[in-house]
Amino acid sequence: PNGLQFVRQFYATMFEKHPNLHTLFNRIDQSHQEKKLLSILTLIVENIENPDALASTLLALGEKHVGFGVI
Q1: Comparing C-alpha atoms, which of 52, 26, 58, 25 is closest to residue 40?
Q2: φ, ψ dihedrals at 39, nearest 5°
Q3: At what angle do helices 3-17 and 30-46 cross, to 10 degrees?
Q4: Maximum distance among all alpha carbons in the chain?
């Protein structure tokens, strides 16, 4: 599948297995969220051999998710 299909299936599976997570996504545009996930996955794949290029971005993303109460 292409990237967008992959992230759509990811969210569909996540919500199917963990319906309580819907509340974390109630106020967002799901298509925008799918594009954000695809973007970060693309960044990771493109820089898999260059972890220094990923460190600050992934750290900031982790901190953001802590703020959301996800982690």
Answers
A1: 58
A2: -60, -45
A3: 120
A4: 36
Q: Establish how many alpha carbons lie within 13 A of residue 2's alpha carbon, considering only the half-sphere containing its beta carbon.
A: 3
Residue 24 to residues 10, 32, 33, 49, 54: CA-CA distances in angstroms?
15, 14, 12, 32, 25
Q: Residues with Cβ < 8 Å from 15, sequence gap 6 or more? A: 21, 22
Residue with tokens 């963990």: 18
pLDDT at 1: 62
Per-residue pLDDT of the chain (71 residues; tens, 9 = 90+): 699 999 999 999 999 999 999 988 888 999 999 999 999 999 999 999 999 989 999 999 999 989 888 87
For residue 34, the one-letter residue type is E
Q: Which residues contact 9 (CB under 8 A, 6 or more apart)?
A: 1
